[in-house]
Amino acid sequence: MTDISNLSELTKTTRPLPMAWYFDPRVFELEQRILFDQGPGYVGHELMVPNPGDYMTLEWMGHAKMLVRNDHGVELMSNVCRHRQGLLLEGRGHARHIVCPLHRWTYAIDGTLLGAPEFADKPCVSLPKTPLKRWNGLLFAGPRDVAEDLEDFSAAADYDFSGYVYDRTVIDECPFNWKAFLEIYLELYHVEPFHPGLRDFVDAANFRWEFGPRWSIQYMGVKNQLQKTGSPKYARYRDALLRYTGGEMPKYGTLWSIYYPNVMMEWYPHGLVVSTLIPRSPDHTTNVVEFYYPEDVAYFETELKEAHQAAYLESAAEDAQICTLLHRGRRALYERGEDDTGPYHSPLEDGMIHLHEFLRRELGPALGG
Predict the structure, then answer these.
(1) Edge to edge, what strands does the sheet with 138-140 contain?
(2) Start and end of every Rieske domain (predicted)?
(3) The predicted structure's pLDDT at residue 11
(4) pLDDT digits over 10-36, tens only?
(5) Is the pLDDT score of 367 beyond 80?
(6) Of 24, 57, 188, 232, which is least surrounded by CB within 10 A?
(7) Please, where are the H alpha helices in the chain?
(8) Given a cut of 70, is residue 167 above it in pLDDT?
(9) Using CA atoms, how far apart are residues 1 and 3, in angstroms rounded to an integer?
C-alpha cells in the first residue's frame, strides 16, 4: 500500500506538463535560473577526499573545480591557474602542493599561492573557493538552506554514510530532457513491463511513498524472498548478496529518494548511490552516478560490489530506453504544435504527480500556469 496522506490537494489535482515545457528554449532558460541557479547545487561527498591532501576534480564541470581536503576540512576550489588559466590537476589523487604544469606556479593545498617563478614580487592571488553546506556528508554549493529543506526528511538515517567509502563515478550522456528522466525515476508503473531483472528483486506491489515540499521517497519491498531472478545480472547480484548476508533478507528491496530539482539518493542492500542530473539543453542531460559501499564490501567483497553495479547499470540502461522513446514521441508532437496529456495512475505514478506539482509551483508564475 502507498501512503499519500501528506500529498497536498494541489498535487492530487495537478495535470501533466505541456509539450513546450520539454523543448522550448525559454522554458529551459527559466529552469536554469529558477531551479538550478537557486537550487542546492550538489557537488559531491566528503568521502571522495577522505584524507588531508586528497583532491578530486569534478569531471562534469570540465574539471574546472575540485574538492580538496586540507586543514580547513573539505573545500570546493578552482582548478584553474591564476596565471594563464590552465587546468592544474585532473582526476583523483593526493598532493602536498598544487603545481601548474605550464609555468610551475605553485599553490598550497588550501589554494594559497606559494610561488611564481621569475616574478620579482609574488602576485597576491589564490585559488577561489566556493562555500559549502553539508548534509550526511553530501556537499552543496548552491544558495538553498539544505538543512531546512531536509529537516523533516524521514529517511535520513538510511542514508548514513558512516563506515562507507567512495568507489567510483559513472557519467552518462543522455539524449533527452532531464524531466523525462525524473518522471521515470518517480513512477512505478513501468517496473513490471520494462525491467525483467529489477522486477524480481523489488516488489512493485509492496511500496509506499512519502513526500515533502522539496523531496520524495519511494520505499520498495523485497520480491518473493528473492526466490526468482529475471536477468543474469540480477541473478549474480542476488547470489552475491545472499552469500554475504548468509541468506538474510534486506530490510528493503531498495529505497529511492529525490531532493529537488536533481539530486537522487538511492539505498540498496550494503550500497548507496547518489545520482545527479545536469541539464545541458532541452535535448541533452548529463547523469553523474556515484557509488559508495561499506569498507568491507568495497575492499573484500568485490563480487557483491561489482554485481550490484552491473545490475544497477542494466536497469539504468533500460530506463534510458524509456526516456528516449518518451522524448522522441513528445518532440514529434511539439514540432506539429500538438499536446497530449494522458491520465495519471495513482498510486503507481504518485511520485510523478508530486514532481509535476513542484515544477508548476516553481515555474508556473514565470510561465503563466
Answers:
(1) 42-45, 138-140, 133-135
(2) 41-141
(3) 45
(4) 445 678 999 999 999 999 999 999 999
(5) yes
(6) 232
(7) 9-13, 20-23, 25-30, 146-149, 178-185, 191-194, 232-245, 295-300, 302-335, 350-367
(8) yes
(9) 7
* pLDDT of amino acid 364: 87
CA distance 261 to 40: 8
Give burial (CB, 10 Å; 0-12/13-18/19+) of 203: middle
ω into residue 347 within 30 of 0, thus cis? yes
Handedness of CA 171, 172, 173, 179 (dihedral sign): negative
Report all structural domains of the chain as residue ranges with CATH numbers, in order of start.
Answer: 4-39+153-367 (3.90.380.10), 45-130 (2.102.10.10)
Q: How many CB atoms lie within 10 A of CB 189?
A: 15
The pTM score is 0.94
How confident is the model at residue 8, as a pLDDT?
Answer: 44
Chain segment 267-310, per-residue pLDDT in tens: 999 999 999 999 999 999 999 999 999 999 999 999 999 999 99
- How does residue 369 score in pLDDT terms, banded at 50, 70 and 90? low
User: C-alpha distances in angstroms, 143 versus 139, 178, 279, 366?
Assistant: 12, 21, 18, 20
Q: Please state, in angstroms and rounded to a whole number, the distance separating the CA atoms of residues 42 and 202.
A: 28
Three-state DSSP state, 304:
helix
Count the alpha carbons within 13 Å of 199 in the hemisphere toward its beta carbon.
13
